[in-house]
């Protein structure tokens, strides 16, 4: 695995306060103070705590394109893109580009200073060269401020330095990210969605009051563009998936993390499946959404979901031990095996809050051993607990 990151201080332009140029060391110090505040506030924001942030309590009235944008008053929000793409000669790649917004206070301070900010942004990206089994990572972080990081409250327009996810007037979503050893430049056309992950987009994560998020997906994005790995660029095309989620409390203190997968099956069915996991590794809460080829949405409760992980791979870097294969049994869905396309797809960010997780390209295998679809597999809480932090 190659990991390359860069501080925003390395940009050609300098940042000024009055006529004083802020040094890279000062900017770095300020950023880490804000990130420390984020981690403290996130820990205090465990499910059930009333700290002034809005809660996901009931189904929401949605309005697009506005709801593709920022939602003030919620502690945490993310715009998340993953996809399985390939070149014209069938060389396969996976990618992720995720923007996170987190608030240290439920409302903006009443100060005129343009330095006043309550939001922090960080972003993760990777390109997975599946043939070479190479997983290349980049990440960025900054406080919210014009020219550094922002998200529109009118539509999909998120930017962090020179990284961005924007939807143009013709509906096409443009993804851009550049790291030292990888780059993403893609255009995505919406083929399905928004799909609400729960009635009215209310997605429960447990049994405590407010332990939920507002969550929808664009489950099929026709995608084309360029992926770059270690200086080599590839023209690619395929399918991507977008999740947009915002909340203030998700995990309870008894939950250590989650297992999540999105699957785009060859028969036109899309599946989103997750389970919240306790310290013993057992399922504490589970949910799934099935979208049939004709666009019908079915919500599936945890009582009808059985996930069993096996073929564990252990990271020598973090010590996290991640199942590489999942037996998936869901009422009304063909049983399948979901397996990673290669082992070492652990994402270890450097510049953003130290949350290590597995984010990997995956494939679905049917009962006769044939591949029936592609997707992405996310596993958190294996290298360190996330309980009470999201």
Question: Overall 3D geometry?
Answer: globular
Q: What fraction strand?
A: over 45%
Architecture in CATH?
Beta Barrel
Kindly state the percentage of residues in helix. Answer: under 10%
End-to-end separation = 27 Å
By CATH, the topology is AttH-like fold
State the domain count.
1
What is the CATH class? Mainly Beta
Q: What structural class should be given to the helix and strand makeup?
A: mainly beta
- Assembly type of the chains comes to single chain
Going by CATH, the homologous superfamily would be: AttH-like domain
Any overview of this molecule?
The protein has 390 residues and is mainly β. The chain has a single domain (23-380), classed as AttH-like domain (AttH-like fold, Beta Barrel). It has one helix at residues 24-44; strands at residues 2-3, 16-17, 20-21, 76-86, 92-103, 119-129, 134-143, 149-151, 157-160, 163-167, 173-178, 182-192, 195-196, 202-204, 212-229, 232-249, 255-265, 270-278, 283-291, 297-301, 305-314, 321-330, 336-340, 346-347, 357-365, 371-380. The strands form three sheets. Strands 1, 4, 5, 6, 7, 8, 9, 10, 11, 12, 13, 14, 15 and 16 form a 14-stranded mixed β-sheet that branches. Strands 17, 18, 19, 20, 21, 22, 23, 24, 25 and 26 form a ten-stranded antiparallel β-sheet that branches. A two-stranded antiparallel ribbon has the order 2-3. Strand 6 (119-129) and strand 7 form a beta hairpin. The longest helix is centred in the N-terminal third of the chain and has 21 residues, at 24-44. The radius of gyration is 20 Å and the shape is globular. The model is unreliable at 1-49 (pLDDT under 50).
